[in-house]
Amino acid sequence: MHTAFEKEDIVIGVSACLIGENVRFDGGSKPSNFCIHEFGQHVTYKSYCPEVAVGLPTPRPTIRQIKDGDILKVSRPDGTGDVAQALQAYGKKVAEISKNLSGYIFCAKSPSCGMERVKVYTPEGNPLVAGGIGVFANEIMKANPLLPCEENGRLNDAPLKENFVARVYTYRHWQALVESGITKHKLMDFHSQYKYTVMSHDLVAYKELGRLLARADLPVEEMADTYIKGLMTALAIKATRKKHANTLAHIQGYFSKYLSPMQRKELCGHIDTYRKGLMPLMVPLTLINHYLLEHPNDYLAKQAYLNPYPEQLKLRYGY
């Protein structure tokens, strides 16, 4: 059950070069097949190139992060043409006007847009530990800590790609809930749809979120704020095969009395084979969805875990 959003309902920030805009230093682009041909069929992009936005030409000399004591420059290798403050100011501006984004895809390793492991140099040109963050990207993420963010390089990893897309759809669902006006009932209903999703990422958070919603001493606004922080933090934790298999076993329990001994054995076998890394997640999930059609269950039918995003993305086929 993924909430049926239209393409224009889900707006994703993206580094302009990743969707084919010729804004890179060499006058070209860095098109991402996933961004353009896969994810792009289901979302609407709002593209940004901070380097062009602060006045740098295309093509242009390369720029890098240079650390001189406590001062961080983003300039040409010789230290001239520093645009660090301009990039920071532009990042703050975009962060403020982009509160309605449901996710962001940055260009990896960029001194302006890289999420992590950006190369940093000394004024003499010696490389420091590659632990920098793009100046523009840092402002976006700092101002929107719950916003699902990824960079193009990491999206080549199947589990990371699936996790990012699932977080985007979860966050957009939450934004729609906020837009409709949060009540305690709506919050409880939202959580009931994501119980197995949370379980597959972090069992501790699963229990903590349940206890949070059971409290009677919190105003609904405070409860909602604490809830979504806990949920998005949990979903950023990697869902391992072991965690997925545990979640699948819980779901299997709903069908036990309806299945024959042979069917139970088959489902158990698929879950165990998946746990061992011998088949993709889609195999036991397909069987569970088949049994759900044969033996309808309203509670399971609304679980985001079973259908978190459009099936056409095929993100659970590869791991």
Query: Secondary-structure element order, as H and E?
Result: EHEHEEHEEHEHHHHHHHH
Distance between the termini: 21 Å
Strand content: 5-15%
Mean pLDDT: 95
Taken together, the total number of domains comes to 2
Write the layout of secondary structure elements.
Layout: E1 11-15, H1 33-38, E2 44-48, H2 50-53, E3 64-68, E4 71-75, H3 84-97, E5 103-106, E6 120-121, H4 135-143, E7 149-151, H5 158-180, H6 184-199, H7 203-214, H8 220-235, H9 241-252, H10 261-275, H11 282-294, H12 298-301
Parallel strand pairs: 1-2, 1-5, 3-6, 5-7
Antiparallel strand pairs: 3-4
What does the model show?
The chain is 45% helix and 9% strand. By secondary structure, it is α/β, with parallel strands linked by helices. The strands form two sheets. Strands 2-1-5-7 form a four-stranded parallel beta sheet. Strands 4-3-6 form a three-stranded mixed beta sheet, with no helix packed on it. Strand 3 (64-68) and strand 4 (71-75) form a beta hairpin. It is elongated and about 75 Å long. The two termini are 21 Å apart. Residues 195-310 form the DUF1722 domain.
Task: Give a brief rundown of this model.
The protein is α/β, with parallel strands linked by helices and 319 residues long. It is 45% helix and 9% strand. It has 2 domains: 7-156, no CATH class; 157-319, no CATH class.
Task: Record keyword descriptors for this entry.
2-thiour_desulf, 3-stranded mixed sheet, 4-stranded parallel sheet, 7 strands, alpha/beta, 319 residues, 2 domains, 45% helix
